[in-house]
Design a protein that fits this description.
This protein has a 4-stranded parallel beta sheet with strand order 2-1-3-4, with helices on both faces. The mean pLDDT is 92. The protein has 2 domains: 125 residues, 3-Layer(aba) Sandwich (Rossmann fold); 51 residues, no CATH class. By secondary structure, the chain is an alpha/beta fold. It is built from 10 helices and 4 strands, in the order βααβαααβαβαααα. It is globular and about 50 Å long.
């Protein structure tokens, strides 16, 4: 990680695809100020298309879903085409993910949050980007900021799907790929 005040991070489309996960990471960034998030129009377009095609979400709802990053992190918009990344093929085994790699490099990101195993960790590491799952960041963040994370999770549960019990939110967070965070939070409630 760099020596900046807060680490810089990019959410892959598979993380944006999980509303509960990308909003949780967004809240950790906006409310707790543990991250700065970066995005590109191409990334949000990919996520929106995936929401429409795979989750069968209506286009206007998918637009609002991906607009979460636009609204809450307007300064995080990056145009990765401006970054010259000559070794994109060494960063991912999937050419369709090259734009995400370019975004992470252009943003000078410390982290790329994803569950996708196609990213080539060593190649991205040469650019200072660590490829991690959300749980690899959120579980240690919970340990370091337990009370603040509990309050944030409680607030997210209160507004999530019209307000639901925190236990339901933690079950969803676990299914979204952050079981360690969910277990840590369960032990405290």
């Amino acid at each position: 990680m760099s020596d900046r005040e807060r680490p810089r991070a990019v959410l892959d489309a598979d993380i944006i695809y999980s509303r509960v996960m990308h909003e949780l990471i967004g809240r950790v960034a906006a409310e707790l100020r543990l991250l700065d998030l970066f995005w590109s129009e191409q990334l949000l377009t990919e996520a929106q298309s995936s929401l429409i095609d795979k989750k069968r979400i209506p286009p206007d709802s998918a637009q609002r879903w991906v607009d979460y990053l636009r609204r809450n992190f307007p300064a995080g918009r990056i145009d990765p085409e401006q970054a010259l990344v000559p070794d994109l093929a060494s960063l991912t085994s999937d050419p369709a993910d090259a734009h995400v790699c370019a975004l992470a490099v252009a943003a000078n990101a410390d982290y790329l949050f994803t569950h996708d195993r196609g990213y080539l960790r060593d190649g991205l590491k040469r650019h200072g980007v660590q490829v991690i799952t959300p749980d690899e960041f959120l579980a240690p963040a919970f340990d370091s900021h337990t009370q603040a994370m509990l309050e944030l999770l409680g607030w997210q549960a209160s507004v999530w799907a019209g307000g639901r019990p925190i236990e339901d939110l933690l079950d969803t967070i676990e299914r979204a790929g952050a079981p360690a965070l969910a277990d840590k939070a369960r032990a405290c409630i």
